[in-house]
Amino acid sequence: MRPLPFIKPLLLASLLALSACDSAEERAEKYYQSGMALLEAGDVDRALVEFRNVFKLNGQHKEARLAYARIQRERGQLQDSYSQYLRLIEQYPDTLEARLALAEMAVENGQWDEAERHGRAAEKLDPANIETRGVVAALNYRKALLDKNDADAKAAEEQAQAVLAENPNDLIARRVVIDYLTNHQDDAGALAQIDAALAITPDRLDLNMQKLRLLALAQDQDGIGAQLKSMYEDFPDNEDVRKLLIAWYIQQGDNAGAEAILRQQAEKKPEDTAGWITLVQFLRQTGGTDAAKAELNRLIALNDPNQRLYRASLATLDFEAGGDQAAAIAEMETLLKDAPSSDQTRNMKLALAQMLVTTGNTVGARARVEEVLTDDPTNVEALKMRAVWLIEDDKPGDAILTLRTALDQSPRDPEILTLMGQAHERDGSRELAGERYALAVEVSGGGVQESLRYANFLIADNRLDPAAATLEDSLRINPGNVGLLVLLADIRMRQSDWPRASTLIGQLRAIGTPEANKAADNLEAGLMLRQEKTDETIGFLQGLIDSGKADNAAVATIVQTKVRGGDLQAARDYLDQQLAKTPDDAQLQLLNAGLYVLENKPDDAIAAYQALIAKFPQADQPVRGLYALLMWQGKTDEASAALDSALAANPDSATLQVMKAGELEKANDIPGAIAIYEALYAKDSSNTVLANNLASLIASYNDDPQSLERAYAIARRLRGLQVPAFQDTYGWIEYRRGNYEEALSSLEPAAKGLPQDALTQYHLGMAYLALKRPEDAKRQFELALQLAGNSPQPQFADAKAQLEKLSSGAAIQGGSGSTSP
Asked: Which of 41, 233, 690, 750 is positioned for an S-S bond with 728, CB 3.0–4.6 A?
């Protein structure tokens, strides 16, 4: 039978399709061979193009993909190389080269899960392979570290040493040996291994940095200098290397060497102002204001296109150096009149804003910052300034939103993170604040200020171990920093860890500067007192006094030690001896007045205080002493007159104003007391004690919702602080706002911490009443009335009324948050 007509076209189409398939594989092979020929000829770029053509025609061409991945790895295109090797093992999982390449790259990037997956696969494929053995040694070493198994770590290090004996170029094995030797304090051996690695790959910044750290540990200043100079030649654009070299020059007293580096960097890009401004700042630090001015005037004289910025910098320099501040501000205003919109102009506006803040013109400063943000809503420095003001205005939520915008632009800025911590603290979110402070420490590389702030935050929560760890980490990077050593020594003394405290005192003495020596003396005296070595303390301090190495604070400590020992006469004899030597010393005169009080000689004490006030009318301490003594004697009118006289002489004293506010509160002039606290708070809203006092008064004596919300906005930073007075304030405010369970969680520990404070006991009673716990409320009201005695405060009249209701069996009403003041 003759075929049907349509069969021939179908058969032809099938044959054509088969021919096309064969042709695609053949063409792919030709592209591969072409790529290999180009590669052999050194034309890598065209070879890669040919290999890509292979993949278009045959995605499973093993040799082409291996070659492509290998080339990309050699060219430093690691992400592309890694993805190509990954695709290859999906198709050919038993390809040793691909497994090893993936494992090695994963080890380099610290991707240990991936390293394990591919490294162990390579081990199964060919455990004897020298490269496989290097990777396996690294995997075994890391596991030993995680398991804290030193025997296994040593075994892995020996594996790595065996690999290096056969293949000295294996950097993975070399790094295992380096890490092991470093961890076992064999710094010389580790240094030799690093040098061997650098002989193979001198362009490895991480190895160079590791060598630098070992030289620093060995305090090899010549070696450090040589290494930094070599690194600066190899990595001229690396900012960290440049900073380290400059710091080394400064440490060696070679300011000219540091200046040469900075000037060289600035001259590379003369149109870039950042380099010149950095040089000016350095000259100011090392040569003083005149040297910085000279450089700026030189730049201005060149008629540089950026001279507007240099003139602004000169005005800022004059302002900060204590020159004519009004003239400096006027110069900035002139420069900004016709300045075009630019980063430079925005920076000048921010510099002007800082000047205006310093001179008290906050309104003008805020206006300039808002101009910058209108022009550039993401300007980081302007956002920081706005956030500071929002925090000061008790708007932490708005501050956090502002700082998030700033963080989007600069995610590793420790100042932004610190401000976020402050905003969370103001908001009462201590856990979030701690996270931000910790992150600020991390991104600053253990910066001194960030570490001190976070450590003090932890200390406030009595978390001494993590505080100590934070300081120790920072000291590894900032060895010899006095502030870090002092705070760490203080923690060790709080922990009664005398040996480590003594070691830190020794480190301070080794520094040898006046600041370090004074800190060491104070700490050593405190250490002796904490160990109750009274005689040794007195002898030590007297030795410092006799040698002229101590101020009269040491005399005060000796007197206080004798007083605590119960020997007033010995304290008097010693102080009289010191007064005979320096009769006009104000510190000793103040100490003398206080000792008169302890000796029950009030008239002598009053005379001594009055003499000091007449001689030093700006001093607060004698006024405080006199006021307290007169109040103790019941001479309230004389005490008030003395305080008013002192305030007339020193109206800006925050201490005296707080004393006056306390006096007004006792006299039931609550509006007057609040007015004083409001004025003080407007000047410094970061003062936690001021915030507590102001919020407490507002919440206790005002009933309107606006006042309660104002009190809460001020006091929410107190949430979570383990200070009874703060717990009482915050708890009572939450009670007034109707949040009774939240109130109770603060008022119970407050009442426990202030067992003799009648008002705190009353507050707890009201919380119990609101929560329908009559027996607990009754107990607290009885205690409050017992402690209050004949106090005229209205809270205790209310306590009596509440107690009568409870005793009569009256129905308990749920609290409304405004039952009483």
From this structure: 750
